Amino acid sequence: MKNTNHVQMLRSAVSASVMALSCTVGWAARDFTPQSGTWVVSSEVDGKPGRGLAIDVQANTFFMQVFGYEKNGDATFYTATGQMDGNGVTAPLMRYKNGRSLGGAMQDAVEDKSVGQVAVHFTNGVKGTIQFPGEEALAIERFLLVDNEPSVTNPRVQMGIRTLRLFGLDSQGDPSWTVPARLWRSEVGTIHLDWYVPMPTTGMLVPIRKFQCNEVADKVRIHCTPNTVDALAKLRSELPSMESLELQFAGFDIHGVLRTAGENPQAVTVMGFDEGAILDDSTYREGITTFHPQQQQNYSTVSFGSGGACITGACSATVTSNTLMPMNGTWIVEDELTGKPGRGIALDIQGNTVILQLFNYRADGQPTFHMGSASYQSKGMGSRTSVASIPLRQYRGGRSLGGAAQSAQLEGDAGVAVLEFSAPRSKSEPDLHLWWTQGQLQLPGEAPVKIRRLQIDSPENFVERMRGDWYVSRTHRIARFDSVQGDGIATADGKIYCVPNTQSESSNMSCGEPNGVLWNWHQFTYMPDMGRGQPFLRIRDRFGNSVGLGPLN
After folding, report:
1. Would you call 187 helix, strand, or coil by DSSP?
2. N or C: which end of the chain has fewer CB within 10 A?
3. What is the CATH number of the domain that holds 171?
4. Is there a domain that residue 281 lies in?
C-alpha cells in the first residue's frame, strides 16, 4: 500500500482511490501512454468556449479533471480516477463542493456525489473516445497548438537548432534502432533534419542522413524526404532504407511514421523526445568583452551561459535567454496538501503559449473553473526564470452532461494569474531539474505559492523507480533494469548496475559497468525525474508500458 506521505500528494478524488488501486498487479502492458495535458471533444471544437479535459496517465493510474456546465448554465468540474484496463478505463465521475474559492480562505472540499460512470478509451497517445453519463461515445484528442510563426520554441517552423532523440520501433513496440537528430531552418526558410552517429573513438556526432522537410498543414508536424545518404549510414545495418519520414511534435514527446523504400515498403512507428533548441543571436560588445546572446528552449538539457574567456586582453562570454519547459499535466499547491479534496491545477505549455485551468469553488461552495492562456517566455537575457501573466476567465452556458450540444459564453474576468518557473542557482548542476516539477503561482487576490507536479505513480524505493527500460546515453543503447541486487538494480546481463547515492549533494545515484573490483565506466548522476532527464530517458515504465505516443494517425 502507498504510505501517508504519498496519499497527501493526491488531492481531490485521487486521495482515496489510488491507495486501493495501486496494489493491483497483472495488467497487460500498453504500447503507448496517453499524453498528459489538455484534451478536447473533437466534435465540440468550434473556436468557442466549451467542455474540456485535463488527462493525466502515470503508469497504470488514470486521473482526469473535466470542466463543463450544469443544466442551469453554471460552470462546474468533475474528476475521475481509475486503473487502466488495456487502453481504456471506466470510473465514477465525481462532484465536489465547499472548497476554497479564488482569493478566499483555506478550506478543504468534501465529496458531493457521483454523477455516473465515464468510459475513456485511447487509440494512441493523442486520440481516443469518451462516453459521459447519458451520452453517446465521442471522439477526443490531445489539444495541440498549431503555430505558423518561426521561432526557437516552434519545432514546426524551427529557428536555430533543435536536438531530438528518435527511435524506430519493431512489431513488438520495442526500439530496434536509435539516432540523435537535429532540426534546423535555413536562411531562405527551408527546413532540414539531419541524423547523426557517434564516432566510436571520439564520441563526436557525424551526420549520416539528411532530409528536407515541409510543414504539414493545420498540424504540428513536418514531412521529410531524404536528399542524401552518407556512406556511414551503411555501417548502421539496422537503419532502414527510406522513402519518407513524418514527425508530430507534442511537447517533449515526438511520434511519427517512417516509410521504407524498396520492393516491400513498410510503415515503421517512430517515437522520440525533444531535448530543446538553441538560437545564436548576433554578437555585441561592451568594453573589452564580446557577448554571444543565445535563445534556448529547454526540456531535458539546459545551459545558462558562461563567464567566457580572455585572450590577450579580449574577452568573450555567452549570455542566454531560457524558456524552461516544465512537465504538462496536473499540478497542486504545496500548502494545500491536507489529504482531503481541494483545488486542482492543469498546466499545458506548448511552445511559447501556456494554458492554465483552475478547478476551484465559488463563494457559495459550488464547484467551478477558471481558465486562460497567455504568452510564456524567459524574463530576459541572463535570467533563469520563465514567466507568464495569464488573464483568468469564467464561462457559462455550455453543454451539460447528457444535454444538447452548445457553446459557452464569457461570464467575466477574474484577474491575472502569474506563473513562474526558475532554475536554482546552485553548486549542484543536477538541481537544475527542479523546474520540471516545481514552480510558483500567484492567483488573483492571493499570495504567491509553491506548486509541484502531481506524481500519481511515485514508487517508494530506488529499485522500483528504476525498474523498466531506459535509453542510456553513455552506451547509446536501451537497457532493461530488472535484476535487484541489494539496494541497487542491474540489467539482466549485469552490464549496468545502479545504486542510490546519499553521500553527495551533486548526485543521487551511481551507475556503471562493473568489471570485477573495477569499472569499465562509471558516473555519478541524478535520477531522471518522472522519466525525463540525462543521461537516462525512460522507454517503458516498471509495468512494461511504453511511454511513447504510439502510431501516428
Report:
1. coil
2. N
3. 2.40.128
4. no
* Residues whose CB is less than 8 angstroms from the CB of residue 6 and which lie 6 or more positions away in sequence, other chains included: 18, 458, 460
SS (H, E, C) 359-415: EEECCCCCEEEEEEEEECEECCCCCCEEEEEEEEEEEECCCECCCCCCCCEEEEEEE
What pLDDT sits at residue 21?
38
Q: In the 3-class helix/strand/coil scheme, how is 347-368 assigned residue by residue?
A: EEEECCEEEEEEEEECCCCCEE
Among the three residues 275, 293, 312, which one is the final residue of a domain in this structure? 275
Half-sphere exposure of 71 (CA within 13 A, CB side): 3
Domain-located, residue 294 = no
In a shared domain, residues 82 and 187:
no
Tell me, yes or no, whether 369 lies in a domain: yes
Residue where a domain terminates, one of 453, 476, 511: 453
- pTM across the whole model: 0.90
Q: In Å, what is the CA distance from 318 to each residue of 159, 280, 297, 303, 307? A: 19, 10, 16, 10, 7
- How far are the Cα atoms of 65, 140, 168, 202, 538 from residue 271, in angstroms, in the given order? 27, 21, 7, 27, 12
Instruction: Output the CA angle 326-524-500, nearest 5 degrees.
Output: 85
3-class DSSP state for residue 5?
A: helix
Distance of CA 218 to the CA centre of its chain: 22
Same domain, 105 and 161: no
Taking only the tens place, the pLDDT of each residue in 290-308 is: 667 889 999 976 676 655 5
How much is the CA Rg of the chain, to the nearest whole Å? 24
Q: Which domain range does residue 234 map to?
A: 155-275
- Are 369 and 238 members of one domain? no
What is the number of other CB atoms lying within 10 angstroms of the CB of residue 429?
13
What is the total count of domains within the chain? 3
344-350 vs 353-361, strand pairing mode: antiparallel
According to DSSP, the β-strands at 314-324 and 289-298 are parallel
Do residues 513 and 439 both lie within one domain? no
Query: Phi first, then psi: what are they for 435, rounded to 5°?
Result: -70, -15
Clarify whether residues 519 and 404 are in a common domain.
no
What DSSP character marks residue 305?
A: -
Do 14 and 128 fall within a single domain?
yes
Q: Would 434 be classed as within a structural domain? A: yes
Let me know whether 213 and 249 are in one domain.
yes
Coil, helix or strand at residue 232: helix
Q: How far apart are CA 28 and CA 329, in angstroms?
A: 24
Does residue 132 share a domain with residue 13? yes
Report the alpha-carbon distance of residue 241 to residue 126 in Å, rounded: 28
| 326 Cβ contact list (under 8 Å, min separation 6) | 347, 349, 421, 435, 436, 437, 439, 453
What is the biggest distance separating any 2 CA atoms in the chain, rounded to whole angstroms?
77
pLDDT tens track for 142-197: 999 999 999 999 999 999 999 999 999 999 999 999 999 999 998 888 999 999 88
